[in-house]
Amino acid sequence: MFQVLCAVAEEGLPLRKLSLQCCKGYGYHGISRLLRKCNHLHYLDLEGTDFLNDQRKMATATAKKVCVTGAGGFVASWLVKLLLSKGYIVHGTVRKPGDEKYAHLMKFEGASEKLKLFNADLLSYESIYSAIVGCSAVFHVACPVPALATTFQNPEVEMVEPAVKGTSNVLEASLQAKVERVVYVSSSTAIILNPNLPNDKVIDESYWSDKEYCRKTKEWYPFSKMKAEELALDFAERTGIDLVRICPTVVLGPILQSTSLNATSLFLLNLLKGCEPVENKLKWIIDVRDLADALLLAYEKIEAEGRYICTSCPAKPKDLVEELKSEYPNYNYPTKFIEVDYYIRLSSEKLQRLGWSYRPLKETLIDSVESYKEAGLL
């Protein structure tokens, strides 16, 4: 019944009378989502809604418990750190909880009491459900394949299908566990890879990448993120689950782990090591800590809904090199750049309306370099 009411409200049909009894089991975020869409509501029946008091008591005890998939990754590690600092109890999914590459997680303040790592495979529904059950929110950050996976014989089977299946399992488990909200990390590449995008407009959350273009150019990682996000959107529309999607651009910033560097950190590290030639193509940057802030905001702000681009400023690799040189003049920077005629305008105005802000690019670069030095990578 709840899903039917959501569908009616989504279509703008005149839902004039509503009894909250039909919303039993869907939590405050779900009920709030429905009420925000009921533009024609004249009468709200509160009779028999003692269950809301029970939910409030349950929320007091469990609302601080959340799940982060792929907890050992670059973005997820910062999110786990932030959540712990805010008092949340965190269930983190990893491949092998005892692996040394996850040791940094247990060093976070509060981790010994509030962080539990689960041995969970995104492609195994049962293992994902065991990590999610009892949580009030799920942050789906993990992707079962790396962004630089280039050796696949059949990318659609080996890369795209696992990303879609993993997302499906997380959403189904979240629905069955009755979490209040799922915050899903997509990518700006699910928005901007389209040859028909207008050059004279700011690209907002309404745009999508072109599937056939991605296939033709063999952009399999963006293709997988787009397919997974489409599945998530369809799932939310069918089931009424409260879903918020965040689409970050190129994520830079200090690392918390010294092993298994992600693609964007490796890109910046290679600039510091003089790897060349470099494709001098415009990139939109976001600091990993600002992205973590955005993810938490997407959960905590009841009014958050839909899709959000998360970015701060544009820069070309040559610009980054010049910025780095001003602070660290002694590194062996690249001198050969291949110019690429590419320009796109993005905006995080929608996210900023939730109260989100970002730090200066220079701070991101300096903190990144210092973390590489501390990790022994420079």
From TrEMBL:
Keywords: NADP, Oxidoreductase
CDD domains: FR_SDR_e (cd08958)
Residue spans crossing the bilayer: none
Residues in NAD-dependent epimerase/dehydratase domain copies: 66-304
Keyword Phosphoprotein: no
Pfam families, A to Z: Epimerase
GO MF annotations in UniProt: oxidoreductase activity, acting on the CH-OH group of donors, NAD or NADP as acceptor
Family assignment from sequence similarity: Belongs to the NAD(P)-dependent epimerase/dehydratase family. Dihydroflavonol-4-reductase subfamily.
Stated name of the protein: Cinnamoyl-CoA reductase
Organism: Arachis hypogaea
